[in-house]
Amino acid sequence: MLPEDYLRALTTLGEVFASYERRTGRSAVLVGGAAAAIYSAGEFQSGDFDIVAFSDDDFQKAMAEHGFLPEDRVGQLKIGFYHPDHLAYGFQQVSGQLFDGKSDEHRVLAFSVAASGTITLPAIEDLIADRLGQHVIASPTDKSRLRQAIYLYRMALEIDGEYLRRRVQEEGGDLSLLDVANLMEDEA
């Protein structure tokens, strides 16, 4: 289950997403570990929220409009934003198109987090592919992204296998790692 403070941060971010969409006519998309945390209902936690938004200026204006400040805290990387009501979390706009333009933006999933806010997530296949691709470039001892990919794959109600195969290949991951036997070997 997602912690209450995480849900409050999501609510505030949902308001930012709504403002951004009013400004641009496009949806921002929450990606990475935060998207995995939501899809897994808190099985995995993430202290940062990575967001893909088409227009930097409009996104920054929407963040400021809802009380987000440029990251300037001691001990934090000076990138992205923080919110005084959600100090445990960092918020960063990642550049470029959603998965470098390789994902199908018609597959995104949007859900309401407040009366005036919606969070948009990538398709489960895109997120699995991203986690597998991130696993490849992570430290050899860091299996967190692989565990996320396997969990997401196993919990998904429906997977478009052809789309998943293409996206895993594009992200540089290894589809065979989703095999349950590999999971058991990794945990042994």
List keywords for this structure.
188 residues; alpha+beta; Beta Polymerase, domain 2; 3-stranded mixed sheet; two-stranded antiparallel ribbon; 7 helices; 7 strands
For the record, the CATH architecture of the largest domain stands as 2-Layer Sandwich
Name of the CATH first level of the largest domain: Alpha Beta
Tell me the β content.
5-15%
Q: Profile the largest sheet.
A: 3 strands, mixed
Query: What do we call the CATH topology of the largest domain?
Result: Beta Polymerase, domain 2
Percentage of helical residues? Answer: 40-55%
Mean pLDDT figure: 92
Cα distance spanning the termini: 26 Å
Unreliable spans: none
Strand order of the largest sheet: 1-2-5
Annotation field: number of helices? 7
Spell the H/E element sequence: HEHEHEEEEEHHHH
Tell me about this structure:
The protein has 188 residues and is of the alpha+beta class. The protein folds into two domains: 4-122, Beta Polymerase, domain 2 (2-Layer Sandwich), CATH 3.30.460; 125-187, no CATH class. It contains seven helices and seven strands; from the N terminus they run αβαβαβββββαααα. It has a three-stranded mixed beta sheet with strand order 1-2-5. Strands 3-4 form a two-stranded antiparallel ribbon. Strands 6-7 form a two-stranded antiparallel ribbon. β6 (109-114) and β7 (117-121) form a beta hairpin. The longest helix has 21 residues, at 4-24. The model has no long low-confidence stretch (mean pLDDT 92).
Can I get a quick summary?
With 188 residues, the chain is of the alpha+beta class.
Layout of helices and strands, plus pairs?
Layout: H1 4-24, E1 29-31, H2 32-39, E2 48-52, H3 56-65, E3 69-70, E4 81-82, E5 90-94, E6 109-114, E7 117-121, H4 124-137, H5 144-155, H6 161-171, H7 180-187
Helix pairs in contact: 1-3, 2-4, 4-5, 4-6
